[in-house]
Amino acid sequence: MKLQIFDVEHGACALLTADNNTRLMIDCGHNALSNWKPGTYLKSHGILDLDMLAITNYDEDHASGANDLFDNINVKWLSRNPSVSKKIINILKSEDGKGPGIERLFDEIENTFTGNALSPEPYFEGLITRKLFYNSYPAFDDENNLSMAIFLKCHNTGVMFTGDLEKAGFSTLLRNEEFRKALGETNVYIASHHGRESGCSDEVAALLKNVYYVVISDKGYTYDTQETNPFYRNLAKGGIFRSEEKRFVLTTRNDGCINFKFTPDSWCPY
């Protein structure tokens, strides 16, 4: 099993390829500098079907490659926070406006992913657990705290994606014992809000007892994430990454695309 965390500047895009070659993409940002786009990437590798797309946040940087993805790839399933409809996203985006990626995503939600299909969810071989955690609208009325956290148990290794959750959103999710348990089982933590201070929660940190690596997709927020690096370094036990040097925090800013390999007996980043 392989997890790729792509360098999409200040955005987010990751791809989990299961042992049976089913694929789960988490967010679909793109890199404007290198012109890397998720659909073009998959197609260039002979992949024309994506078993599931999961969206952790309804900001443009998490969906800026949506047009490229849906134009090139048959996306079979969409996983998201269902409390946010197109009408609600129009309200949330009334001041700043929607980008083309979010516009396309909600067009697909209205016309393709209507929730009426009865087909079974894809089977990701080796993915022992896939759990979703999110707050609902109107309890929260900002995109960041409506982010969907995703916990993946890849064989015996726990990976947690947290979207752009901020302290208030985390505090509410922590009332859920399943979320607290998942944090305790997390070995790879994808930092919230691209590693910015608003996503640093002491309540969450207190439960992250088994984290070896924190990953930050942060190219657009270099200064902010340098400020929070000590916070995240203190969370992690650390391990070898690409050389003999022990690392605690991995960043797409410095490391480019970050990969993880998971087997029943071992796991490692590279």
UniProtKB/TrEMBL annotation:
Its domain of life reads Bacteria
> GO molecular function terms here?
hydrolase activity
Domain spans labelled Metallo-beta-lactamase: 11-190
Alphabetized InterPro entries for the sequence: Competence_DNA_uptake, Metallo-B-lactamas, RibonucZ/Hydroxyglut_hydro
Q: Does the keyword Cell inner membrane apply?
A: no
Which intervals of the chain form a coiled coil? none
User: Does the UniProt entry include the keyword Acyltransferase?
Assistant: no
Q: Read off the Pfam families from this record.
A: Lactamase_B
Q: Which Gene3D superfamilies match?
A: Ribonuclease Z/Hydroxyacylglutathione hydrolase-like (3.60.15.10)
Q: Which UniProt keywords apply?
A: Hydrolase
What is this protein's name?
Beta-lactamase superfamily II metal-dependent hydrolase
